[in-house]
Structure formats: C-alpha cells, structure tokens
C-alpha cells in the first residue's frame, strides 16, 4: 500500500486498482508524474498531475542488467533507477503512450544499491551504499559523475554490519552538509564540504532518519530513531544548544593530523586548544 499527504492535512491511501504491487522505495516526482519502482525492475508512473490515479500500462523496464529493483530517485532532469547491481538513468522523452520515460543507455553504472533505505540525497548529489558483482560494500556519490567516497577501513566495518543493517540519511548544521551512515550499532558521518569522515556514538542510535525545517523560526533539524522505543522526535535547535544527547552529557574526541618526526617518539610540554567556551 502507498499513502500521500494532501494539502488539506489528510493522509490518504492510494486505492487505484492499477497501482503496482511489489513496490520498493519511495516516490520520485518529475514533470507532473509520480514514479515508483517494483522489485521486478519496472518503473511505473502515475497519470500526469495526479498521485492517486494510475494506469496499468504506464511503465518502463529497467532491464539493462538482470538484477532486482531497489528504488528510484530524481537527479536533476533525470531519474536514477537503482537495482541490486546496476543503476540506470531515464529522462522524460514525452512518449505518447505507456511511460513518458526513455533510458540513457550510455549512463548505466554497474554498481547497485543494497536497499532503498541506503540511498539519500543532498542538494543535487546522491549518496548510497552500493554493492557490485565482485562483492564488498562501499559508500558512493553521484554528482556530475560517480565516485567512491568511503575508505577501506569503513567499508570493512560496514561489511561486518551486513547490508540489511545499513541505512543512510542526511542533515546540515554549522554550515556543513553531512551524510549519516548507520551500520548496525556503528554510525559513520561523511562531511561533504570537508570530504572527511568521523564517527557518532551514543547509548542508542537516535539519528535513523533526519529532516530539516527550512521555513519559519527556528530552522531546526529533526530526527527519529529505529532502535529507541521512547516515541520521541529528536531536535537540534540552533537557538538553544544544550550539548546533551537525549538528556545525557556527551564527550568528544579530537584527533589531530600527524605531529612529530616520523616514527621518533616526541614529547610535548604543553598543548592549547583555541575555540569558543561554553557559557
């Protein structure tokens, strides 16, 4: 089943009998159409300018490779159709019947995604946890082209966590964008601006999915947890920092770049940290 949120504030179920079964992931919207993928690799579209009306013949198959469908996401003026071992790109060709989409065969990538839950987007860049026919798991990015952004050390931990336990989300604070990679009980965070990785740790994983409020005041970041049963919606409020994690004070570790003379043990008599002091 699938649902949509009307402007009137009502959550409504899509009851059209032509809505596809076996869908995976969420919707992608482009040019008045709502698109959704099935596990068999078909990319269905709604009737134009409607979310609730569907036609059984309005689909195109993402079948460049014989893998299963994972989900679809919009990237600029194209749709990225993720499979288990490939990604195919589609554009609105304005076809008169069936699907309006046509495939850009030359853009097909032979790396897939482990799940729709492991795909996120920051501005017009797409990040995902990917797999390949050769094995292994890695974090990839598609901006103007695709690249691997994870390190071998992080990939080893993600692989041990298992593909079914990996999810991605994204947020922005302190003027920087972050991709949050949850791998079971471990969380790695990639700073897009700095191109650097760091780790988040807490009693529970409270940042399963994040969303930012871009209008009004204050402009806060909200997050929900998949492990906490408290029912809480967590918030980062830029106007009221409390420096606590779910009511508990937290510690941080600062790791510097290499200081010293190669492998020679070096002693320092004094170190000074420059920064703002908490009031």
Care to describe what's here?
With 279 residues, the chain is mostly beta strands. Helix content is 4%, strand content 43%. The protein has 1 helix and 24 strands. The chain has one helix spanning 152-161; strands spanning 3-5, 11-13, 23-30, 33-38, 42-46, 54-61, 69-75, 78-83, 87-92, 101-103, 112-113, 119-122, 125-131, 137-142, 146-148, 166-173, 176-183, 186-191, 196-200, 209-212, 221-224, 234-236, 244-245, 248-249. Strands 11, 12, 13, 14 and 15 form a 5-stranded antiparallel sheet that branches. A hairpin with a 4-residue loop joins strand 18 (186-191) and strand 19. The longest helix has 10 residues, at 152-161.
Features of the shown structure:
279 residues, mainly beta, 1 helix, 4% helix, 43% strand, globular
Helix content: under 10%
Poorly predicted sequence stretches spanning 5 or more consecutive residues: none
The largest pleated sheet is described as: 5 strands, antiparallel
The coarse overall form would be globular
Oligomer class? single chain
Give the mean pLDDT.
91
Q: How much of the sequence is in beta strands?
A: 35-45%
Give the topology, please:
Elements: E1 3-5, E2 11-13, E3 23-30, E4 33-38, E5 42-46, E6 54-61, E7 69-75, E8 78-83, E9 87-92, E10 101-103, E11 112-113, E12 119-122, E13 125-131, E14 137-142, E15 146-148, H1 152-161, E16 166-173, E17 176-183, E18 186-191, E19 196-200, E20 209-212, E21 221-224, E22 234-236, E23 244-245, E24 248-249
Antiparallel strand pairs: 1-2, 3-4, 4-5, 5-6, 7-8, 8-9, 9-10, 11-13, 12-13, 13-14, 14-15, 16-17, 17-18, 18-19, 20-21, 21-22, 23-24
């Amino acid at each position: 089943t699938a649902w949509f949120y009307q402007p009137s504030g009502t959550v409504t179920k899509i009851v059209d009998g032509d809505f596809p079964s076996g869908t995976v992931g969420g919707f992608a919207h482009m040019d008045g159409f709502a698109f959704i993928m099935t596990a068999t690799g078909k990319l269905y579209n709604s009737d134009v300018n409607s979310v609730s009306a569907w036609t059984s013949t309005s689909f195109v198959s993402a079948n460049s490779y014989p893998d299963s469908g994972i989900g679809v996401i919009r990237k600029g003026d194209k749709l990225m159709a993720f499979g288990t071992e490939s990604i195919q790109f589609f554009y609105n060709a304005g076809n008169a019947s069936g699907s309006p989409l046509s495939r850009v065969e030359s853009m097909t990538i032979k790396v897939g995604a482990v799940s729709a839950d492991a795909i996120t987007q920051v501005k017009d860049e797409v990040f995902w946890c990917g797999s390949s026919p050769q094995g292994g798991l890695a974090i990839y990015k598609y901006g103007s082209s695709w690249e691997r952004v994870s390190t071998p050390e992080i990939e080893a931990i993600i692989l041990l966590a298992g593909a079914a336990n990996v999810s991605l989300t994204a947020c922005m604070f302190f003027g920087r964008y972050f991709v949050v990679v949850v791998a079971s009980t471990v969380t790695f965070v990639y700073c897009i601006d700095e191109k650097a990785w760091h780790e988040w740790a807490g009693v529970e994983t409270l940042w399963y999915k994040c969303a930012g409020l871009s209008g009004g005041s204050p402009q806060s970041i909200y997050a929900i947890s998949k492990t906490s049963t408290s029912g809480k919606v967590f918030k980062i409020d830029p106007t009221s920092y409390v420096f606590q994690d779910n009511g508990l004070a937290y510690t941080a570790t600062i790791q510097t770049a290499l200081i010293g003379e190669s492998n020679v043990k070096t002693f320092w008599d004094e170190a000074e940290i420059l920064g703002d002091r908490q009031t």
